[in-house]
Amino acid sequence: MIVTLLQLFWLFALLSMVAIGGGTGVIPDIQRAAVDTHHWLTAKEFLDLFAISRAAPGPGSMIAVLVGQKAAGLGGAAVSFVAMFGPSSVAVWGLAQFWNRAARKPWRAVVERALAPVGIGMTFASGLALARGTEHAMLSYAITAATTLIFAFTSIHPVLLLAIGAATLLLAGG
Amino acid sequence: MPTRPTPPHLAVPYTAPSLAALFRGFVSIGMSSFGGGLTAWVRREVVQRRGWMDDQQFLSGYALSQLVPGATNVNLAVFIGTHLRGVAGALACFAGLTAPPLLIILVLGALYFGMHGMPGGTSISVALSGMGAVAIGLNLGTGIRLARRGIRGVVPGLITATVALSIGVAGFPLIKVLAIMIPVSLLAALWTRPA
Fold it and tell me: pTM to 2 decimals?
């Protein structure tokens, strides 16, 4: 049990520290370690857990918690959560402290001005990459396009859009 | 909302949001973000609805959160919390964003392992892909909102387009694109004076 907990901690701490640009990039690595190396779960179970973690609200990397839960119960879930989010959060906190202390430095204003167009580009990129990565039927593209325009130019609540999107596909029979 | 003396790291006099407000704000972000699109929710809550940051502060936080390894949106929550209220703020935002989804996922996991099967079956996955399609649109719509207010001039526009297309369409690794485009954008920002 202790060995499993240590393995979980090591795996997720390591993966979270290489997950530059977001947590979803390391999901194949989680699968390899959990299914092939440690045999905590089967490939089918992993896919199901992936679907569950996407269905649930919150960060996508929560799948780590489910893997930990299967491998070692609640203790495993807790260890996985801490390992997945702890070290990176401490790193961001350190960076943010540094950033705050530089509030009145002239260079920070320049960096802020420089990061703005990059950040806007990444916002588009995250949407475009997701659209590219998922199997998309014409209807899904239409939903994405309509949502993009409605969200950009009106103040309709996004939860309503989510409900309409889900209902549209359900009514269309998948 | 307590009125506090302006912290030394804030350039303008400012009433920081209370820890409870930060926690509640991020609970609502975490619980609304079905199917992804968290960034859209964070901007909507933090910039648009509550005015805790402006777009430029939000965007630097977002870019810096991507540079640190780990889940971007958790990083962004910690960054925003630290920016507004230091360590306590970081903990409030982190807890708000992760605690309710953590409880939900533990319950779903227990149901799944208990029943040896998917709760809900195929209609869940169909509804999910519908929400996924919407979530993508929320991200793109946020990009449009940000671009309309934040991009002034041809050079920033070209930088935005290059980042968006090279990562989002050509599929280049984000970190390599940033390693090139952040220095390019820095040079451009040094070259031009603020408007």
Answer: 0.83
